[in-house]
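Sample A.
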Amino acid sequence: MNSITTGTFAADDSLQRLEQLAGISQRLLEKARALGASQAEVSCSEDRGMDVNVRLGEVETVESTHDRGIAVTVYFGQRKGSASTADLQESSLEATVAQACAIARHTEDDEAAGLADAALMARDFPDLDTWHPWTLEARHAVDLALACEAAGRDADARIANSDGASVATAQSLSVYANSHGFIGRERSSHHSIGCALIAGQGDGMQRDGWYSSAIARADLQDPEAIGRRAAERTVARLQPRSLPTGQVPVLFAAEVARSLVGHLLSAVSGGALYRRASFLLDSAGTQLFPDWFHMHEQPLLRHGLRSCAFDGEGVATRDSALVSGGVLQRYVLGSYSARRLGLQTTANAGGVHNLKVAANAGDLPSMLSGMGTGLLVTELMGQGVNGVTGDYSRGAGGFWIENGQIAWPVDGVTIAGNLKQMFAGIEAVGSDVDPRSHVSTGSILVGRMTVAGDD
């Protein structure tokens, strides 16, 4: 068993540390300008955290992290060079800028290279309530993890083993600055508690778990409730069956439904589009989903998991529809990919912010009732998705549904289709939103997919 310290994070000095990172950014921009760069940008980050893992009532690991990084990108006209360091000594910072400049001088012109347009830089920086540090002592973190695991192991006699429980807390500070005069500061926190359990014996063993994650400690589920939920999910998987091959309705539970949104985002991202490596080329303005389907990005949402007033290039973010009335309204672009496509950035350098899929149905029980008979998918395995053709084939586990009720657990099946047809075939989105992701969606019912099993 590891020894445990009783240390905590220091008193909140995040604003002072942000100012220090901002000062470093400004000095690096000045150095780049002095070395002849026509444009430059600097990203500085600092992360602190603690992660505790226990198993079978014993402490396995207690880890404290403190990482930082400085990345410098310079442009000489349309030639680009980048370098990075984790060392804040002045000599290292100077060497990093010099290295970025040396690289830029030896690269070829890229007509799409350069900072985002100065007119697009963010000017307003509202408080988005993303900073909720948790001054957690290591001993307390261990107690929480032990309580979580114990609640799960004690919940059902069929729980035979454990893969352990964990408690983690993290704080992140970042500064982005560029030679347009833009400087943006961001601070965020993230915490989680989770548990994974094993039920049954021998070849009949099944594993499952549950976790809670949030930007504030007050938003986390109680450790005991997490352990009990992990136990319920694990024993529910015992004695699974396969299925005969056929075409049936497939309901993606909320925790896996967001993967469908992820496939859409990959296909409409700038990198895939300008490389001509997407099944959704030239799809902006076309009907991809049913006409009731809506998907909206909310980067300025207070207390959102990925809220920010600016993207990774300093461009001001704004609420906007990605899909409205089933029609794809736009792509997901940073300035580089936008220039390659002859378009304008959508303020998505670094990804999307708080994407919400609107529900048109009720909770999971009502979704099951509406489906009647089909497959409820609670786990996906493998990476069988072809981003160029949209062909979809993944291993899956979950439950067979008859008469709107769970009939038995299912394992060892493959679900297959084509993402374009799957998107068009969505029949319902539930209100049972999984709050643990910046992609906010309930369960998603696809009217018909091929399910291949062993029976």
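Sample B, a different protein:
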Amino acid sequence: MVGCTYAAVPLYRRFCQATGYGGTVQRRETVEEKILRHAQDGTVTNREIVVRFNADVSDGMPWKFIPTQREVRVKPGESALAFYTAENLSSAPITGMSTYNVTPMKAAVYFNKIQCFCFEEQRLLPGEQIDMPVFFYIDPEFETDPRMDGINDIILSYTFFKIAEDKS
């Protein structure tokens, strides 16, 4: 049972990245390649997108996990930086790992995370609190895709899962 729990997050990550399930972004072109291509093309956008942030912890995970800000406003083609805060409320060190999704799912293909804490183990000592950055970019092609008409809000949602409990 412990082995299944430990393996669940990496397996889920691989499944989501391969299939795009749950709004997980599939990669074809790197973010750097997209930014360079649109810079060379002189792509300009006017539409403003509101990116809202959500944070959850799995059952039994004694952490407080919240977005530092509720939302940011960004135009397609721009990058933005946001922060989440995690705090270990227990009296023991705890290691956790987060998964994420982007909704609406059809907008996820345009949402590119440049730097993120997801799918990386985060170990917090008792009472420790950390800020974790998310640096992202919305592809300017978002603005010209007719399937994105009427979509002006994107939700970036993270859930932290307990990976291991240290016995020290």
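Observation for Sample B: The chain is about 20% helix and 40% strand.
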